């Protein structure tokens, strides 16, 4: 078949015939067209929402390559029903829309490609998009020489990867299939609203494919004389979406298109009297009316009348508590206000002024959420004119309006003009100017997020203000503008920000710390846009140890925002290393001392400079700063001045009198918490919209009265000694409506699948409180309150298919679809649904039920509480998260006073300190010692601790677990993987397995089984219900703390005399590596018990942490609920378990986390019968290879120094006269024989260490390390390695050698020196190879042959005089320690000598002599050179007879090769 098609294609090429669709001039091609869009879950017998568009499509030729398309008799049908019922309902189109749909459009068509669309300007964009959907079918890129191929093709959804296949069916008839992958589009058409500040996880999308789609077309083509004719075309598009990160279980938006040639008429389409203009290409375009009109929740008719009606409804129905539909009505109010123009909105606000406070309150809450240009204009007018708007209201209106405003260029310009408005400054001062500038930055951020390229002029305005403030050193303005640049996150903002950074040598370094902090934080927003630039700057700041610690920490935070490589991350730990080094010798202040310092700083505020900031408060929304207040000297002075003007005592007395007389207040607030939308086109040209809206209304009625013993002329300190009685009643009411929508939202039709969640909270409370600050006694009483309804908290979730224009709403899951157990009559419908499932899901579904309705009730202390959970979902089809959510869910929590217990009030009494024991009644009279002796938990403690600390083999056996293989590390071959605790490991190491390695719990406790016998109460908490018969009801809780033993004990008992219920909890630190907690409760605390231990240890020599819970008996309710959580939540996400033998006496569960590798953890969950192992990949590497090595020191702090130094170390290497510096620059070093060279030394005033290198012979080298007062020499003696410490040789058999914080050992046939506290991580010596690792804290603090470790290899050749030279030999010789005489014990017979050029030269016309700027090595007098080198040396020249002085600081005028000595032979004349 392919051969035939290929031959046909070649024949067509030879005959110069095209395979593109052709339309003959003078004729009209009439097609029947139908497009259908359905959304919902993919299975049948579930409700779907959608629409159908049917029409006749006429196409005729206007002129060559220009065609005309006209729709005839277009009709729209909406669908909301159980699919596949054919119940589409026809909707009446508006006359204007009907006229626009019938208006002919023109398009340029060349070789099957739609090039351009032309239409009258009056035709709406959304109508043109329907035409694009039809033209999308005619977009055919047919290649003449191939029958199967792939290309990037433009369509309504963008330029996407498209595959073609052509086959011949019969003579002159062909079948063409085309598929388009919507997940691989270069220019995908999509619009996000409300997502500008969110961070997209591209990797998550790649893994879970939360949104994916594909489009397929099948064509029947007929060859005609000039090309081909499309006889029939059918398209099917599927877009899948799930909000969860899972591969299975997604909602579908299915689009089908059917196009069939009906007839060819001999008359072309008649022209119309209209001017045609360019209206874009085949790509879908977003209509402006769509962007600010979310999915409609009601029909819009007379907007003005509807607004008045909704305002009346909101005011009348929310007086006592929030009405159940208040959030929905508030959202409808916002949508109606978006449909008003400026004059209508202005009039509405004028009518509902302060004379109508209730209506005005709802309008003021809705106004910031409108987000239109008209709304911003109204807000600006009211703020500038100060028209009936307070400062807080102006602040709320402005911030809300700016963040909801469409980020267009016009709106950005309008906000900038408002910033420059002088009347704003006069009326409101700097507060609103700050808000405006911060909002301006956020507008730029959102504008650039939606545009591929954004203008730089918007950010240049801020740059101009910044330069002006910089010149005036205006700290407050610079801080504000840095925050604006942070909000904007504009690429052009990087350079202005760097001008504010504390970079050495720049003007920014002179600015205050406040400016530096904000400038560094501003870099975070640019971390992705200017990845490399921000990383380099952040690293530079972090490495600058002259900066304050806070600035360096902020720089490290910014550095991590750039997601650096592990090589870059390594430098971070040097800060910790530096901290550890300082910590050893620093004084540690306790909390009280620190607090005194803080208070001292504030008390001495007058001595502070004006610019020094004491604190800062800011408000951020989605990462955007909207307001801030800096607390400095000026702020304090203003507050003090205000306090002087106010008579605090008088106001205090006024407030006191007011509260004693009683106050009543009502609060109500409405908000649009979430509005997130994603709009993308379907193949039919109609938009698919995914949206999430959340609106909430909160109200509270508060009545309060306070009686206190404060004197009439009280002082502030009197409050802390006062007693107060408070009587209050509060009736909070909260209603929240949230809508998740997937559907089509246009003026033509509104159909969608809607998940609506309603949350209602009504928990009135009537309370009284007695507060005694002096005695530390706080009593709270709750009185019974009559509820308007039993339900206090209700959550109702429903999923419907909604067709708005036809007013149809269908539940997703029909009542007749259910599992056979709950509804036998629905078996047939269920079988139809199950037949469409995969076999695996079909089998699993038998174990699932679609309906559940459970109610749990309990009575405690006279209060009856009930929880009802009902669900009717699609889990019987698929056990995915989306299917579990889809359907109906109900959660009701109700409270009611018990009918059997006549309770007058509930009381909570909290007493701090030892006096609380006087209020204990039941606990003071109980003989708890008998209870504790018989407590199962206590017995378990004894067994557990004794076995852990004394019988390691027993514990190891108990804690072992079987597991399955993970990459060969932990597998079934290891039948019982042992968890070896850390204290066991140390006990074996230190005591060779003998005796106990620590105290048992009983040893620690001694005779103090009850802490109350020797210690006072730390707190007492009494929960009681007061009954009419005064019988005690409730609980007493007493807490005790033994700080010496790190032990806490809590005892709880029921207050009723006949009730023996008790709880005993004991927690103690057994060792530094193990904690244990034991709880026993029930009748005399003997019925139930559990033990929890947490400890560190090893699993197969790999670091691990284990948490273990063990028990003998648990209440059946707990067991039932744990099993339910285990089966419903954990099992779906756990791998298949491995079964193991279980013991009837063993009931436990443990979770072990094993550090398997640098980027993988193994989680081992072990129950009594099963073992689950799951491998977790980490996003960053752990330094596991370092941690796996044996620690070089016994001391923990030394090991900490070592690990931190190792993690951040930098390396220099010497190998066969070649040196690789810390900055990775390699050069050859011809070494002078027997003379020490400074390989590396710490070059600050501390002189922590120096490492010297010496060439003993051609094949032998030695090093000498000076650390403080210790000298360590490593050398070759009789062909073997040797080491001396302070001139005393240490035998190899006695290694490792440890002194203070220095360790020397033989490792892998190399001598290794550790001195991390001095900055040396490791030094490896192996004769001709020396490797030096210095800690990160030594960066830019070292010098010598290894360079400065500053990251700049151009500065490596820096001599001791500070000059950077070009010659590596001259540089190396400058770091050579010269000899003074031939009596030098080192054997060195050379000195450094500054040489003169042996010839005179003429420089600039003047005869001059030249001297070397760097010394060279020369043999001592009485010695002759036996080996030389000829390095190039720089010379400085001066006129003859002019003194040269020291030439090392002078410039280089020329370079010449000179002789430098490497080895010398000396006679007896050498002294």
Explain what this protein looks like in three dimensions.
It is a single chain. The chain has 1471 residues and is of the alpha+beta class. It contains 38 helices and 63 strands. The strands form 8 sheets. It has a 25-stranded antiparallel β-sheet that branches. Strands 1, 2, 3, 4, 5, 6, 7, 8, 9, 11, 12, 13 and 14 form a 13-stranded antiparallel β-sheet that branches. A hairpin with a 2-residue loop joins strand 50 and strand 51. Helix 14 runs parallel beside helix 16. It is globular and about 120 Å long. The protein starts with a helix and ends in a 5-residue tail after the last strand. The N terminus is likely disordered.
Task: Tell me the quaternary state.
Answer: single chain
The biggest sheet amounts to: 25 strands, antiparallel
Spatial extent as radius of gyration: 41 Å
- The helix content is 25-40%
Q: Which word captures the global form? A: globular
What is the strand tally?
63
The chain-level structural class is alpha+beta
What is the tally of helical segments? 38
Determine the strand fraction and express it as a percent band.
35-45%
How far apart are the termini? 103 Å
Average pLDDT confidence is 77
Q: Would you identify the regions where 5 or more consecutive residues have pLDDT less than 50? A: 1-17, 201-208, 570-612, 642-646, 819-847, 935-975, 985-1002
């Amino acid at each position: 078949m392919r051969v035939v098609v290929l031959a046909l294609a070649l024949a067509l090429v030879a005959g110069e015939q095209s395979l593109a669709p052709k339309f003959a001039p003078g004729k009209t091609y009439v097609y029947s067209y139908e497009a259908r869009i359905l959304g919902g879950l993919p299975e049948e017998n579930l409700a779907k929402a959608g629409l159908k568009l049917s029409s006749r499509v006429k196409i005729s030729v206007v002129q060559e390559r220009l065609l005309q398309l006209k729709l005839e008799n277009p009709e729209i049908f909406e669908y909301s029903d159980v699919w596949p019922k054919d119940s589409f309902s026809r909707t009446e189109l508006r006359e204007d829309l009907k006229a626009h749909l019938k208006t002919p459009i023109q398009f340029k068509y060349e070789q099957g490609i739609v090039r351009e669309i032309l239409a009258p300007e009056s035709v709406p964009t959304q109508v043109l998009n329907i035409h694009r959907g039809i033209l999308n079918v005619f977009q055919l890129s047919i290649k003449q020489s191939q029958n199967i191929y792939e290309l990037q093709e433009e369509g309504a959804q963008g330029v996407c990867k498209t595959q073609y296949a052509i086959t011949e069916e019969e003579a002159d008839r062909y079948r063409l299939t085309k598929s388009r992958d919507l997940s691989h589009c270069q220019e995908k058409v999509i619009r996000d609203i409300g997502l500008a500040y969110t961070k997209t996880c591209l990797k998550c999308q790649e893994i879970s494919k939360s949104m994916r789609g594909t489009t397929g077309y099948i064509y029947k083509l007929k060859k005609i004389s000039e090309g081909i004719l499309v006889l029939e075309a059918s398209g099917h598009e599927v877009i899948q979406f799930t909000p969860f990160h899972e591969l299975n279980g997604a909602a579908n938006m299915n689009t089908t298109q059917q196009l069939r040639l009906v007839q060819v008429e001999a008359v072309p389409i008649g022209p119309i009297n209209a001017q045609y203009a360019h209206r874009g290409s085949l790509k879908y375009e977003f209509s402006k009316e769509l962007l600010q009109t979310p999915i409609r929740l009601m029909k819009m008719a007379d907007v003005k009348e509807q607004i008045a009606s909704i305002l009346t409804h909101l005011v009348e129905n929310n007086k006592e508590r929030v009405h159940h539909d208040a959030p929905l009505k508030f959202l409808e109010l916002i949508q109606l206000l978006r449909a008003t123009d400026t004059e209508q909105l202005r009039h509405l606000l004028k009518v509902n002024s302060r004379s109508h406070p209730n209506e005005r309150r709802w309008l003021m809450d809705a106004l910031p959420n409108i987000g239109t240009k008209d709304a911003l204009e109204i807000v600006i007018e009211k703020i500038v004119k100060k028209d009936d708007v307070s400062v807080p209201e102006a602040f709320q209106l402005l911030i809300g309006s700016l963040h909801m405003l469409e980020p267009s260029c016009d709106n950005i310009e309008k906000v900038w003009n408002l910033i420059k408005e002088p009347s704003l400054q006069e009326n409101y001062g700097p507060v609103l100017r700050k808000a405006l500038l911060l909002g301006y930055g956020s507008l730029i951020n959102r504008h650039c997020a939606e545009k591929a390229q954004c203008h730089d002029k918007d950010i240049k305005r801020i740059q101009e203000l910044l330069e002006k403030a910089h010149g005036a050193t205006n700290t407050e303005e610079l801080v504000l503008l840095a925050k604006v640049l942070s909000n904007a996150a504009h690429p052009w903002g990087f350079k202005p920000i760097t001008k504010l950074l504390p970079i050495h040598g720049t003007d920014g370094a002179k600015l205050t710390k406040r400016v530096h902090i904000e400038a560094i934080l501003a870099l975070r927003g640019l971390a992705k846009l200017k990845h490399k630039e921000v990383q380099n700057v952040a690293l530079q700041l972090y490495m600058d140890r002259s900066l304050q610690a806070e600035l360096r920490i902020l720089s490290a935070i910014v550095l991590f925002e750039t997601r650096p490589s592990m090589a870059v991350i390594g430098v971070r730990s040097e800060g910790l290393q530096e901290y550890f080094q300082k910590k050893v010798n620093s004084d540690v202040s306790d909390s009280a001392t620190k607090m005194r310092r803080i208070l001292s700083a504030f008390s001495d505020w007058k001595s502070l400079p004006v610019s020094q900031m004491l604190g800062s408060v800011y408000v951020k929304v989605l990462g955007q700063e909207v307001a801030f207040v800096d607390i400095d000297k000026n702020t304090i002075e203003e507050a003090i001045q205000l306090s002087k003007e106010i008579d605090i005592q008088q106001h205090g007395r006024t407030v006191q009198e007011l509260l004693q007389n009683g106050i009543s207040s009502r609060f109500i607030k409405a908000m649009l918490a979430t509005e997130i939308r994603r709009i993308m086109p379907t193949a039919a040209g109609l938009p698919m919209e995914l949206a999430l809206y959340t609106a909430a209304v909160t109200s509270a009625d508060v009545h309060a009265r306070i009686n206190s013993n404060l004197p009439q002329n009280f002082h502030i300190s009197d409050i802390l000694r006062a007693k107060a009685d408070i009587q209050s009643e509060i009736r909070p009411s909260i209603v929240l409506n949230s809508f998740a929508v997937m559907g089509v939202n246009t003026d033509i039709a509104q159909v969608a699948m809607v998940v609506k969640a309603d949350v209602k909270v009504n928990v009135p409370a009537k309370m009284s409180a007695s507060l005694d600050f002096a005695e530390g006694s706080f009593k709270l009483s709750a009185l019974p309150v009559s509820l308007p309804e039993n339900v206090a908290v209700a959550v109702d979730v429903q999923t419907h298919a909604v067709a708005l224009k036809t007013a149809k709403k269908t539940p997703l899951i029909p009542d007749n679809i259910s599992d056979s157990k709950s509804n036998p009559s629905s078996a047939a419908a269920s079988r139809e649904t199950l037949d469409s499932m995969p076999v695996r899901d079909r089998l699993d579904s038998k174990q699932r039920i679609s309906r559940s309705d459970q109610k749990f009730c309990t009575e405690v202390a006279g209060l009856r509480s009930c929880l009802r959970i009902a669900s009717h979902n699609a889990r019987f089809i698929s056990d995915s998260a989306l299917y579990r959510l889809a359907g109906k869910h109900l959660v009701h929590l109700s409270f009611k006073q018990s009918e059997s217990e006549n309770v007058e009030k509930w009381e909570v009494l909290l007493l701090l300190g030892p006096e609380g024991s006087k209020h204990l009644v039941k606990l003071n009279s109980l003989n708890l010692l008998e209870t504790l002796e018989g407590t199962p938990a206590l017995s378990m403690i004894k067994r557990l601790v004794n076995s852990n600390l004394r019988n390691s083999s027993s514990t190891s056996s108990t804690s072992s677990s079987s597991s399955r293989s993970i990459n060969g590390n932990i597998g079934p071959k290891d039948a019982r993987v042992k968890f070896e605790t850390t204290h066991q490991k140390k006990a074996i190491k230190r005591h060779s397995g003998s005796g106990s390695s620590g105290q048992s719990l009983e040893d620690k406790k001694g005779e103090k089984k009850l802490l109350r016998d020797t210690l006072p109460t730390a707190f007492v908490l009494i929960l009681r219900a007061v009954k009419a018969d005064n019988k005690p009801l409730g609980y007493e809780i007493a807490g005790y703390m033994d700080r010496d033993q790190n032990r806490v004990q809590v005892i709880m008992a029921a207050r009723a005399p006949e009730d023996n219920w008790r709880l005993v909890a004991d927690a103690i630190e057994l060792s530094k590596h193990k904690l244990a907690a034991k709880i026993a409760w029930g009748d005399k605390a003997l019925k139930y018990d559990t033990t929890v231990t947490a400890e560190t240890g090893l699993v197969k020599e790999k670091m691990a942490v284990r948490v273990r819970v063990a028990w003998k008996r648990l209440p059946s309710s707990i067991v039932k609920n744990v099993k339910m959580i285990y089966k419903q939540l954990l099992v779906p996400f756990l791998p298949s378990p491995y079964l193991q033998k279980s013991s009837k006496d063993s009931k436990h569960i443990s979770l072990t986390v094993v550090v398997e590798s640098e980027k993988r953890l193994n989680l081992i969950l072990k129950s009594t019968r099963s073992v689950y192992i799951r491998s977790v990949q980490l996003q960053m590497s752990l330094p596991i290879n370092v941690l796996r090595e044996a620690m070089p020191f016994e001391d923990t702090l030394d090991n900490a120094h070592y690990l931190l130094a190792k993690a951040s170390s930098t390396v220099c290497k010497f190998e066969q006269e070649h040196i690789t510096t810390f900055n990775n620059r390699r050069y050859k070093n011809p070494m002078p024989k027997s003379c020490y060279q400074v390989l590396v030394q710490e070059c600050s005033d501390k002189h922590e260490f120096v490492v010297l290198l010496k060439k003993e012979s051609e094949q032998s080298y030695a090093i000498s390390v000076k650390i403080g007062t210790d000298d360590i020499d490593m050398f070759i003696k009789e062909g073997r390695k040797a080491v001396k410490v302070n001139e005393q040789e240490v035998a190899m058999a006695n290694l490792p050698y440890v002194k203070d914080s220095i360790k020397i050992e033989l490792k892998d046939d190399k001598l290794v020196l550790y001195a991390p506290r001095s900055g040396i991580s490791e030094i490896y010596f192996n004769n001709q190879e020396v490797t030096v690792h210095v800690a990160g804290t030594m960066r830019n603090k070292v010098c010598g042959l290894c360079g400065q470790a500053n990251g700049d290899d151009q500065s490596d050749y820096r001599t001791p005089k500070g000059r950077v030279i070009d010659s590596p030999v001259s540089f190396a010789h400058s770091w050579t320690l010269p000899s003074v005489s031939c009596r030098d014990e080192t054997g060195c017979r050379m000195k450094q000598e500054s040489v003169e050029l042996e010839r005179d030269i003429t420089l600039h016309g003047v005869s001059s002599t030249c001297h070397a700027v760097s010394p060279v090595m020369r043999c001592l007098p009485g010695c002759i050179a036996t080996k030389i080198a000829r390095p190039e040396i720089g010379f400085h020249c001066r006129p003859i007879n002019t003194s040269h002085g020291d030439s090392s600081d002078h410039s280089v005028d020329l370079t010449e090769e000179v002789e430098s000595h490497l080895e010398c032979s000396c006679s007896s004349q050498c002294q």
